[in-house]
Amino acid sequence: MSAIPFYKWFVGGKTNIALNAVDRHVKTWRRNKLAIIWEGENGEKRTYSYWRLYQEVNKFANVLRSMGVRKGDTVTIYMGRTPEIVIAMLACAKIGAPHSVVYGGFSDQALADRIADAKSKVVVTSDGSWLRGKIVPLKNVVDEAVQRSPVVQSVIVYKRTGQEINMEQGRDYWWHELMALPIASNKCETEVMDAEDPLFILYTSGTTGKPKGILHTHGGYQVYTSTTLEWVFDLKDEDRWWCAADPGWITGHSYIVYAPLILGATSFIYEGAPTYPYPDRWWRLVEEYGITVLYTAPTAIRGLMRFGDAWPARHDLSSLRLLGSVGEPINPEAWKWFYKVIGGERCPIMDTWWQTETGGFVITPLPSVPLKPGSATRPFPGQVVDVVDEHGNSCEAGVEGKLVIKRPWPSMLRTVWGDPDRYIKQYWTDYAQQGWYLAGDSARKDADGYIWVIGRIDDVIKVSGYRLGTAEIESGLVSYRDVAEAAVIAVPDELKGSVIYAYCILNAGSTGSDELEKAIKKHIREEVGPIAVPEKIEFVTTLPKTRSGKIMRRVLKARAQGLPEGDLSTLED
Ligand code: PRX
After folding, report:
1. What is the pTM for the complete model shown?
2. Which residue, by CA, sits nearest to atom 25 of ligand 1?
């Protein structure tokens, strides 16, 4: 380990995560074991044994090398949920090229910003992907983004839906054509990486408008993600693991792609919406594929719960032995429904608290730990977590405080890509003296030492488990010509956990109307992405501010919910 907070793990160790996730298995009986089982939303099915995955990864790694990608070059990936995203990520790892996966729900502007920050010469995408019976036009978004990204030289396009798309000569190449060329040999040397070499950048929202590129490395990340998956979900060779997240988020990176493959497990991946064509799609999948462990998010559970018990009741869910939850605190009603109706009161629910920054589970039960619905229970063995006040004193049971991690851990983020000062400022300044990591969440402990996470203390909003920065949405709003000033807040919502309310002051001469609200929402969809569209936009003439000019979001929040506005003594007006 080296100086706070630039910790290093396994210094001098040589490895490659792809070696442990893929290469190593083909030398054992697991070469014939299924690594991935996939079903498309349109009912298409595919399976990959470890042997086949190994060959596909080798082939695509050779394709990337032939496009000039070298160790240390970043590759941006913007794809739907098909096995190819896994193959692309592993191929990057194999040749030592850090990947930057951008979630397919982000707009072209958001994609362009991330391509520019990562400086990727190559982008991997697909023509589209299926969601709720419609095609998400991924390649169109890439076209727009690449126009604004002079660094991009080549775009590789996997054909998923087969609809007409624009292919620019000399820049865009079909995945299947490249994979059929002699250069795409199924043998490929795995690059020898230092344990501390970059594995990937994953952008996440923080307190300022600019997304942060969270950096993870080959060594510590593989050790911690695989250990946590093995201990918390007790994965065995006979299991069928389904992490129902998107590979574009940290949950997918760690627990769809890397950890299960390192453990030699069989993972199931489903492309589309849980309710398509009917609200029992997931339950049919559990039955048909004999899923034994299902790991999902409270928002998905609530979304399926509202269709009632009859849909799951049509299916035999007895293969399930363990369940999991991640992304936000799970409310007791959703917990109980998941436990009773889905898990048949047999399956403990592993409520795992962690973050993009932590790489793997930090607060989590193990299958034998007594559970309390809504609490992620206690720290994973080796983790030292506490709830503290402003001065760093441990809070008494029942008292709300800030969540901190007191010791470094192998899969911790190493820095913010290209911005080490921001890394220090964001995570290591509040408790600099003590050298503790500030998670950005508030929480309380109970008398048994269980931790109850309450929510974010910074300007981060969780909508349907997606992490968004208020600043990102606000700068999207003010970039609309009629909007002079904007503030957004999170308001509790039964289904989504929280939704976004926006307050806009208009420029002189503009007046608020339903049409304007619609136009601004459309603008946000294009600027930031569909996940950032406010539920409601209110046109106002002033915003509550402190005398130093800071918007008092808590006042807006109280007003929106009809609650007392609290102490207004610092209010400017
Ligand atoms: O506020 C916490 C919430 O999600 C945040 C991290 O978001 P992200 O980096 O997108 O990663 C989500 C998937 C790991 C945390 O700061 N959060 C995550 N898991 C839980 C949670 N809140 C309560 N309980 C959880 N189990």
Report:
1. 0.94
2. 353
